[in-house]
Structure formats: C-alpha cells, structure tokens
Amino acid sequence: MPRPSSTGSKVGAKTRASKTRASKTRATKTRATKTRAKKTRAAKAGVKTRAAKAGAKAAEKTGTKPRRLKKLSGGGGASEPRILHLDTFSGIAGNMFAAALLDLGLERKQLEQDLAGLGVDHRLKLSRTRRGSLSARFLEVVVPGQTRLRKRGKSGHAHLHAQTDAQTDAQTSAQTNAQADHAHDHGPHGPQAGGSRSYAEITDLIGRARLAENVRNRALAIFEALGRAEARVHGVSLDEVHFHEVGAVDAIVDVTAAAIGIERLGVVRVTSSPVALGYGMIDSSHGRLPLPAPATLELLKGIPTVPAHVEWETVTPTGAAILRTLVDEFTSMPAMTVEAVGLGAGNDRPGPVPNVLRAVIGRSNEGLGRDRIVVLEANLDDLVPEHFDYVMERLFAAGALDVSIQHIQMKKNRPGFLLRVLARPGDRMDLAGILFAESGTLGVRSQEWERLLLDREEGRVQTPYGRIAVKWVRDINGALQVSAEYDACKRAAQRAGVPLREVVRCAEETAREQNS
Q: For the whole model, what pTM was predicted?
C-alpha cells in the first residue's frame, strides 16, 4: 500500500482548522447578535417602564383620577369602608339608581351575568345621554314581546297597584285599557308590562334565583317594602297585593340590579340627602292620583323630604322602597375620600332641574364609621317571660338591629324588664307597632343616637365542615379580628358530629388566612 503524502496531510489539517475557526466565528457572531437583541428589548422595556412611572408621577402631581372605578372589590383588603352617598335633588327611580351605579363603575358584563340568575328573559339597554348640562347614563330594560305603553307625560313613573284576587280577575280587561293611558315615563323601569304578578309570585321568583345571599335578601326586602306600602294604601293584606307594571320583569330587574350593585361595589354604608318631591296629578288604572303617589308617600314616612318645585313625579314607589331599605342615614355628604361620581338619568323633563340621580362613592377618611340609629324602650311588668322569644323574633324580622332585655325593679317594688330595640330610623313606626301589639305596653320611648362603627365585612369561607359565615372586623388600630357566625357553626357541627369549638376554630383560622 502506498504511503500517504505528507504534503496532503498538512493541507487537510489546515483545512480542518480553518473550518473550525469559521464555525467559532459564526457562533460568536450569533451570540453577539442575540445579546444585542436582548439589550434592545430590555432598553425598550425600560423606556416603557420609565414612561409609565413618569405618567404616574404626573397624575400624582395634578391630582387627576378617572371618574369611574377601574377595579371593583368588596373592601375586604381596604383600610376604610366604602360609602355610597345619594344626592336626590331630582328624586330617584329604580332605573336611575341602577344607571348611577353603572356610571360609578359597576361592570355591565358582571351585572348581566348576575341578573341571568333570575331566569327571566330581558336585555339591558344602556346609553349615554344629557339632562340639562349634565352627561348621564340612561338604563332601559327591554323584554322580548313586551308592548311599549309609555308616553310622554307629567308623571314620571310606573306604579304598582294592589288589588284583591277577585278584583284582579274582574278588572283585567279594564286595566288593559287603563294602562294605555298610564303615561309614566320618568325612566323608572323601561317598557311597561301587561298582566300582573302577585307578591308571592315575585318573592318565589327571587327566592329561587341563582343570586348571592346578600343580594337575594336585599331584593326581597325592597319588594316587601313595596308590597306593605301598597297593602296599607289599598286596605288589603300583603298576600292580596298584585303588582301591575312594577311587578313586571323590568321592575324586578331594577330592584335586583340595585341589590347586586351594592354588593359588587363593596358598599357597607349608604347615605342620602333629603328627598326632593314634585307635585301635581297623575293618571293611573285607579284614576287620578295626587303626587307624590300614595304608595310613595307611605314609603317615605320618617324620611326627610324637601320640595323639588317641579310639576312632575320625581320619586317612584320603587325608588322610595330602595331608599327606605338601603339607606342608613339621611344627611349631607359624609366625610369621605371620593373615588368616583355617577349620574343616572330619568326621562328628559322641562324645568330648572336636570332629571338625574347623582351617586358618590368613596372611602371614609375618619378612623371610625358613623351612622344614626333609633332606640325604642318599654318597661314591662306583665309579659310572660316565655313570650320574649316570640317578640324578639318578630322584631328582628321587621328590621331590628338588636334587641335586649334587662331585669329592673319598678314602682311598688314590682320586678320587671326593660325591653330595648336598636333600629334604623326609617323602621321606627313598624317596630313600635310590634311592641304595642305583642308586649302590652301603654307607651314606647323613642330617641335617636349617633353610633360609631368599626370597619367590618361579612362573607363565607370554605372549611372541611362546609361553607361557614364569618365576619371580618378591623379595630381602631387596624388589627384584623375574625368572628365565625354561631348558627352556621352549630349546624355544621351537628352535621359532622364534631365539637362546636372545632368548627369555630377551623372557620376563623381559614378566614384569617384568606385575609392575610
């Protein structure tokens, strides 16, 4: 075999070395290119970050903030509770309240998802409009197949009408004709609905709906206030009340939307200015009625009002029921750091006042929240102690915030009891009526107190024993305290066959971890 040429070997070695150097050079260039690309991206990101920081600093200097809330929360992680103040200089209606909450920042998509739990066919129509010189949101509830019966007129609202079952059957035809003349269009509920729904049907619908517990309770309370007012006005029982127009889908949606908005915006306290009332007459299926409408005036008992100096209906029964049920205090705007302002429009009206409801939301800038409560007291010496349980149940069901009983020594050395009830001022007369009916007292003392409040939030936590209701409270120094709801813990302990204290411990530890 011939020997390989030494010259050829040297050439091959040089060629391989040359290729190796070229490969290394290309790799080096590739790494350098990638490094430059990374530096370029980092530089761009740095420019964006610096721009964002500069924008934030500029916003801080100018004090400019968006009017609408960008992020909704229940306030659990906030240092101060969220307050909603209603400026009712032009009254209030159900759709005005819901529109104002949407203008504040309530997410429309979230509201529609929650309302879907009602299981009724409807669509929200939300638009931007002007009332006088003010830009506001206008909300209508559109129901497929529903005939629009509303016309322009001096009244402003659809009304609910209470009748006995016999009257309902006898007057169906007459009401159909009368509704065509029921020209109430202050934008309260959107299109009018024909037919009627009984109070029991509405409460059953809301009771079966897929709603959060707090939302369901608020909506039921608003409709109960409406029903009781109509029952008193027409002299019938609550079970005999039938809702016409206001009992239609649009009104049910308005009321439920109000309850959802309060929950979604994390509002823990609602205040309102004195309510402005218009004057005049309106046409209804009951004939000519004075303004404010009888049911509206019934709902406004105990609530401060002022004249609006306009000849149209400024407050609907639905709006009055929302005020009576949700408002904690009627006062000027409380001390707060304003987060957003929302305007909800009614129909356009002639006159010097724009037909809008203004809502202001913010955080308390005081160390403590405050409201006003009414205190009802009676000294009792002839009530059977076993009956106290029933009396307390009735008082709590009617809206009492707290009920207490103290042993006292009365005149002629008779042993007796001091029964004390704490409540919202608007519930004073209803609760006093229960005391007169159930306790046998001949007199009830009443006075208003100012109450200081710690920041609190209620909710539920998931535990091995099921979902347990808890309350988070921040003390005056900001420290978090947790309290599990007794009845929920009791039921869970009975189901699981474990000690009550174990369920309480587990629920409270979970609640602390959730807010840590």
A: 0.58
